[in-house]
């Protein structure tokens, strides 16, 4: 028995060896068939989608929107917070003197995640490291080809030194408000969404003016300066060269523009002047047939049944209109906060027809050109076609202050009858502006 067992064991071992040799070789690890990865919340989002990193983020956004537009923005932030499926919460905090508040918060290391800002402040805040560039991951949330959704002038305004710092929300051009009752009484046809020609504009003014009614209310301060900026472009000039490094608002076109604004004022409303928009009050009281001013007056003036809305007339060879733009940028480079903020920006942009109720023209083409805008915000729809011709300054740090702070007093002095030599006044202002611009360029290393 012992001998039979000793013979059996080698036989079994040999059989096992032969069977193993007959088995196919195990495939190498690199040749293993691909296994579909499990989809988890940690995986990156597709382009144009809200990434998982944004989930459950709490985002604080500041803004300079301290009036009714601020209430509208707060309501939209609340709506997004309640409706988005990612658990993102956005809180909107209006900040008067927002540039000073942002700079102070940056110094204290207490910045919010993002801010609404005026397009004129992008370069300055970027230079001071208050605004942070948008990352590739953040930009992917907006989807490919997003630049095609906006007029070039406001899209470019969010770029500085090759990086994107802000996303356009709106454009706010000047609006020509008019009194429909006074127009009817004078037999003047109401304007449409196509800007009046110079002949149409001046013919209407002549017909509207009387002993009791001013055809147009022209003041000083903001209104006079923005009309000057609009008409200098219409007459073929500009405030600076294309790069924004040389002041040019003492050209023949500039003299022509300021002369024209002054002629309108002296002929129709010589006594109006001062801050606080007194020209708008004259119009509200029914004592002026036309006033040209910013769209932030829409929410108030549309309550008056006699008010109509139209674009700034074209008095020069090429149409142009002063305008501003609110944009949204990040004051943090935290990836999760930027991701959540980008989801909020994308939603707000796509739903910016609601923002039009605050007296702002949506920057996004599909919203601005859509039929829904006219249904929800007819006054804004009336001036929306002018946005491609909006006067937006070059993106240079502190450029607006260097310009407006110098030509503004000249405009006021001319309109108030305190300066007769327009060319000399503008020459002196250009010299002052250029000095400030050169100092700014040296400070910021431009």
Characterization of this structure:
The chain is of the alpha+beta class and 446 residues long. Helix content is 44%, strand content 12%. The protein has helices at 2-22, 68-83, 98-108, 122-127, 136-142, 152-156, 180-186, 198-208, 221-234, 252-268, 278-284, 298-301, 335-350, 365-368, 371-376, 378-383, 399-415, 422-444, and strands spanning 58-63, 89-94, 114-118, 159-160, 163-164, 166-168, 170-173, 175-179, 290-293, 307-311, 321-324, 326-330, 361-362, 390-391. The strands form four sheets. The protein has a five-stranded mixed beta sheet with strand order 2-1-3-12-6. α5 (136-142) runs parallel beside α13 (335-350), α9 packs across α17 (399-415) and α17 packs antiparallel against α18. The termini are far apart. Mean pLDDT is 91; it is low at 1-45.
SSE topology:
Elements lengths: L1 H21 L35 E6 L4 H16 L5 E6 L3 H11 L5 E5 L3 H6 L8 H7 L9 H5 L2 E2 L2 E2 L1 E3 L1 E4 L1 E5 H7 L11 H11 L12 H14 L17 H17 L9 H7 L5 E4 L4 H4 L5 E5 L9 E4 L1 E5 L4 H16 L10 E2 L2 H4 L2 H6 L1 H6 L6 E2 L7 H17 L6 H23 L2
Parallel strand pairs: 1-2, 1-3, 11-14
Antiparallel strand pairs: 3-12, 4-5, 6-12, 7-11, 7-13, 8-9, 8-10
């Amino acid at each position: 028995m012992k001998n039979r067992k000793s013979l059996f064991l080698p036989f079994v071992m040999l059989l096992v060896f032969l069977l193993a040799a007959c088995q196919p070789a195990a495939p190498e690890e690199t040749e293993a068939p691909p296994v579909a990865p499990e989809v988890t919340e940690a995986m990156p989002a597709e382009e144009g989608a809200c990434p998982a990193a944004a989930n459950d983020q709490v985002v604080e956004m500041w803004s300079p929107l301290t009036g009714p537009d601020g209430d509208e923005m707060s309501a939209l932030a609340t709506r997004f917070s309640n409706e988005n499926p990612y658990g993102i919460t956005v809180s909107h905090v209006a900040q008067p003197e927002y540039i000073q508040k942002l700079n102070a918060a940056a110094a204290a290391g207490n910045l919010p995640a993002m801010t609404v800002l005026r397009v004129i402040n992008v370069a300055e805040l970027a230079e001071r490291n208050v605004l942070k560039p948008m990352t590739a991951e953040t930009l992917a949330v907006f989807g490919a080809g997003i630049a095609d959704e906006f007029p070039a002038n406001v899209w470019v305004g969010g770029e500085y030194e090759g990086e994107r710092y802000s996303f356009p929300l709106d454009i706010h051009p000047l609006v020509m408000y008019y009194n429909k009752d006074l127009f009817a009484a004078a037999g003047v046809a109401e304007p449409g969404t196509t800007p009046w020609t110079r002949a149409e504009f001046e013919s209407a003014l002549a017909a509207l003016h009387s002993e009791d009614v001013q055809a147009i209310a022209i003041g000083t301060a903001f209104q006079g300066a923005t009309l000057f900026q609009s008409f200098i472009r219409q007459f073929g000039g500009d405030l600076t060269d294309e790069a924004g490094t040389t002041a040019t608002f003492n050209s023949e076109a500039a003299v022509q523009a300021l002369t024209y604004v002054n002629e309108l004022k002296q002929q129709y409303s010589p006594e109006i002047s001062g801050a606080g928009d007194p020209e708008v009050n004259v119009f509200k009281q029914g004592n002026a047939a036309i006033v040209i001013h910013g769209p932030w007056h829409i929410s108030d003036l549309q309550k008056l049944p006699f008010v109509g809305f139209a674009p700034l007339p074209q008095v020069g060879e090429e149409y142009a209109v002063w305008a501003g733009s609110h944009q949204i940028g990040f004051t943090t480079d935290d990836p999760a906060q930027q991701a959540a903020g980008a989801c909020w920006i994308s939603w707000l942009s796509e739903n910016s027809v609601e923002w039009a109720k605050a007296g702002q023209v949506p920057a996004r083409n599909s919203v601005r050109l859509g039929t829904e805008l006219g249904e929800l915000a007819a006054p804004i729809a009336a001036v929306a076609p002018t946005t491609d011709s909006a006067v937006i300054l070059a993106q240079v740090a502190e450029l607006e202050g260097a310009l407006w702070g110098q030509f503004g007093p000249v405009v006021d002095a001319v309109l108030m009858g305190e300066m007769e030599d327009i060319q000399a006044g503008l020459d002196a202002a250009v010299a002052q502006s250029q000095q400030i611009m050169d100092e700014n360029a040296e400070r910021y290393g431009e």
